[in-house]
Write a structure and sequence with these properties.
D-Maltodextrin-Binding Protein, domain 2, 2 domains, three-stranded antiparallel sheet
């Protein structure tokens, strides 16, 4: 009996020692400098700042933001393995490049950043849809060009395309050709994401016509009550050609629900497995994130301020991405 008690006591002692020893704290490992693509629109820039804050404060990384946009960033990750992380890479708008990335294997998708995927298309305001029920699909635009004519160019409608460098620029250009809109429309480049947002805001606040590209989740779709024009069902082969600037014969097809990846250089997984694990959990609910972006827009928050607001007010979401010790370090630095 004494022998059994001694064994039991020894077992308890070992268990006690095991419990007393904390788990190894998550850290940046041999990560060195971790580069994160900060793209030019609010959602992506916010996610970049969010990832940087968690990596720096939670894991002790030297996390640095670098400028980017969908196509240039995807191309750079393919050819140079840099930046290390693109928190909001729209795979569906750079599919040809992404296919090369998968074949090369130097970059991988750690997670789908939006729980419900990304929504892309051409949009009009809800009041315009009510006034012109004949305009329901992208194919209805050609015959109804006069609705979208600008005073500076009354002989053509204006369709707002994508800013230079965005993957949707190539797709929109090819769709414009596929529908034959060049006969009645000008494809207008807004020049930047901020200019595109401002153009929509001006049109809606003045109750004027607008048609052009946008995406969700975003503050713009919710704030300005935009209605997406109908498109045919998604066809993978046709869409793949639309993502190619050299597509010889563009054919009309709809966007699929957008695949929006947390794209990560494979080398980072090797250098910093704890950070790679965090990136594998990085995902935001569409509705909550749109609400966050609308709040940021209404209160004129910078992407950095929006990230801090998210960390302070959406703890239940982001704390599930990381171990408890990392979460505590992030909170302590807010």
């Amino acid at each position: 009996m004494k022998h059994k008690l001694t064994l039991a006591a020894a077992a308890l002692a070992v268990a006690g020692l095991t419990q007393a020893q904390p788990a190894q704290a998550a850290d940046c490992g041999a990560g060195g400098t971790v580069t994160i693509a900060e793209m030019t629109w609010l959602s992506s820039a916010t996610l970049a700042h969010l990832a940087q804050r968690i990596m720096a404060d939670g894991y002790g990384c030297d996390a640095q933001l670098v400028p980017g946009d969908t196509v240039p960033t995807a191309t750079s990750m393919l050819t140079r393995g840099q930046p290390d992380v693109a928190p909001e890479l729209w795979v569906s708008t750079a599919q040809a490049i992404w296919d090369q990335i998968k074949e090369k294997g130097n970059v991988y998708k750690a997670s789908d950043i939006f729980a419900d995927g990304g929504i892309e298309g051409w949009w009009i305001p809800d009041y315009l849809a009510a006034e012109h029920p004949e305009i329901k699909s992208v194919e209805d635009l050609k015959a109804n060009w006069a609705v979208f004519a600008e005073p500076a160019n009354p002989g053509q409608g204006r369709l707002y395309g994508c800013p230079p460098g965005w993957g949707c620029e190539i797709i929109t250009n090819n769709l414009f050709k596929a529908i034959g809109l060049g006969e009645t429309f000008e494809l207008f480049s807004p020049g930047s994401g901020e200019n595109l947002k401002a153009s929509i805001g001006r049109a809606v606040t003045r109750n004027k016509p607008f048609v052009g590209y946008y995406w969700g989740p975003s503050d713009v779709i919710g704030k300005y009550n935009l209605v997406r024009l109908d498109m045919p069902a998604f066809d993978a082969d046709k869409f793949l050609c639309l993502t190619d600037a050299n597509c010889a014969d563009p054919q009309l097809t709809g966007w699929a629900v957008g695949e929006v990846a947390v794209a990560v250089a494979t080398s980072l997984k090797e250098r910093s497995p704890d950070v790679a694990k965090f990136l594998g959990h990085l995902q935001v609910p569409n509705k909550d994130f749109s609400a966050l972006l609308a709040h940021a827009e209404d209160n004129r928050l910078t992407p950095e301020e929006t990230a801090v607001y998210f960390l302070k007010n959406y703890d239940a979401i982001w704390s599930a991405w990381v171990p408890a010790d990392v979460a505590e370090r992030v909170r302590a630095n807010l």
